[in-house]
Model the fold of this input.
Amino acid sequence: MSILRYLNSLPVFWFILSIPALLLIRSWTVGESIAMDMLHPTGELSARFMIVAMAISPLIVIFGKRGWTDWLLKRRRSFGLTAFGYAMLHLGFYIIDMEEIEAILAEIDAPGIWTGWLALLLFIPMAITSNNASMRWLKAGWKKLQRLVYPAALLTLAHWLLIHDGVGGALAHFIPLAALQLLRTIIIYNRAKSTSPQPEYSP
Done:
């Protein structure tokens, strides 16, 4: 196996995706940071990987089949699972920071909190079924299940906006995704319109 092919393999790719998590965990375990310090970076990384995974389909529609879009498509599942992994790490640090279940339950009805919990609950079935066996078992239902990513993304955005004072960071991440999705919708609509049969003119 050549060096380039080795570096491009999925195991190496997974390791690269896990590097930020390893660094954050190390920082916490050696006492350089506390659990509360880990909440923002883990949540932000989860959102970023989710956005990357969601941006791949619009990019393929916009730019067509290219070498780089094919590379992204083959790794879309990895990006999605990585987003879930960082969301679970975010949850873990949140639980450690809160220390007691009573404290967690006391604020669960706050909009900035329940939006995060609901987004995570939507992520769970998508992550569990993100494998070939589930695709074969669920058939057409698999794609419908994976579309839960859209409400999950909206809830993630709401969670981010409500937890932090400023909106700049959240919008800087989600506006490009929204623009890509809008452009994708326009292109698909125009293609369908151009291929639809035109009514015959009768004088």
